[in-house]
Amino acid sequence: PEWGKDFADNQARFAYFCKAALVAVKDLPLGGSTYGDEVVVVVNDWHSALVPLFIHVQRDTDPSLWAHTKSAFLCHNAVFQGRFEYEEGLSKVLDIPQQYIDSITFKMPLKVGRYNKKFLCVNTMAAGLRYSDRALTVSPSYARECASDPEKGVELEELFALGRCTGILNGVKEGVSPENKDFVKKTKMVCGTFTAQNLVEAKAELKAAYRQESGLPESPGPLMCFIGRLD
Fold first, then answer.
1. Taking a C-beta distance cutoff of 8 angstroms, is the pair 140, 165 a contact?
2. pLDDT for res 152
3. Alpha carbon distance 209, 203 (integer Å)
4. Which distant-in-sequence residues (6+ apart) come within 8 Å of 56 by Cβ?
5. How many H helices and E strands in the chain?
6. What is the pLDDT of residue 96?
7. Strand-by-strand arrangement of the 40-44 sheet
8. Helical H runs in 75-214?
9. Residues 6+ apart with CB under 8 A from 57
10. CA-CA distance, 53 to 43, in Å (whole number)?
11. Which of 3, 95, 106, 167 would you label with 222, given CA atoms 20 to 30 Å apart?
12. How far apart are CA 76 and CA 226, in angstroms?
């Protein structure tokens, strides 16, 4: 992308990601078998917020599709909404009825800010809030704020309220410990507890285990990981 800007094709990029996600749930043998429609689909932030909308569209067309599926939309930060300028023909591109596009189209700034110029724009996060069975955020207090405060809800507070927004406190459980055998097994923490004395050896052991599991070649350099937004 251009410096300081999102990828120009983000709207299409994440719309087709959402379509692919539903194909994966329905048709891919994940863990040896397909999930089918007896699932709860949790979609994170605006990037996957069209999933509940697409489920709704398919169910409207054929009530037997996704008949037993529930969905939840999880918002980590209401500022990032996936706002895109409205364009004629979008419903045909996404292969959905125009009424669904209309339901997530608002007159608001493309970039969040009360003094920015307002346009007719499609708000992707609105799809998650409007069409999921339940909206979630990262804490009870943030849920209340998003559903009642225009500043915290960033112009979508009514939809947060409509989605019966529930806050689940983000963070690590106090009971989690490397001394807990179940925790060690689930996290594949083969080195045991980190201490100042065994730090170097423990890191090397974890690196070797991850390389073996992931099929990575041996390397004397550090193993670097990235955790961040995909847009």
1. no
2. 93
3. 10
4. 100, 131
5. 10, 7
6. 97
7. 40-44, 70-75, 134-137, 166-167
8. 90-94, 98-103, 124-131, 140-148, 150-153, 157-162, 181-187, 199-214
9. 96, 97, 100
10. 11
11. 3
12. 18
CA 134 to chain CA mean position, Å: 14
Structure tokens at 186: 């689930």
Pairing of strands 40-44, 70-75: parallel
The predicted structure's pLDDT at residue 13: 95
Contact 72, 43 (CB under 8 A): yes
Please state, in angstroms and rounded to a whole number, the distance separating the CA atoms of residues 94 and 186: 39
Pairing of the two strands 166-167 and 134-137? parallel
pLDDT tens by residue, 129-164 = 999 999 999 999 999 999 999 999 999 999 999 888
Residue type at 150? P
**Structure-token match 């019966």, residue found:** 164
Q: What is the mean pLDDT of each run of 10 residues along the chain (231 residues)?
A: 80 96 93 90 97 98 96 96 96 97 96 90 97 95 94 94 89 66 76 80 88 88 78 57
Residue reference for tokens 């849920």: 143
Question: Average pLDDT of the chain?
Answer: 90
Name 91's bridge partners.
none
The C-alpha atoms of residue 113 and residue 96 are separated, in whole angstroms, by 30
- CA geometry: angle 216, 218, 220, nearest 5 deg: 125
pLDDT of residue 176: 65
Tell me the sheet residues that pair with 122. 84, 105
User: What pTM was computed for the model?
Assistant: 0.77
Strands (E), the chain: 40-44, 70-75, 83-85, 105-109, 118-123, 134-137, 166-167
Contacts of 212-215 with CB under 8 Å at 24 or more apart are 213/188
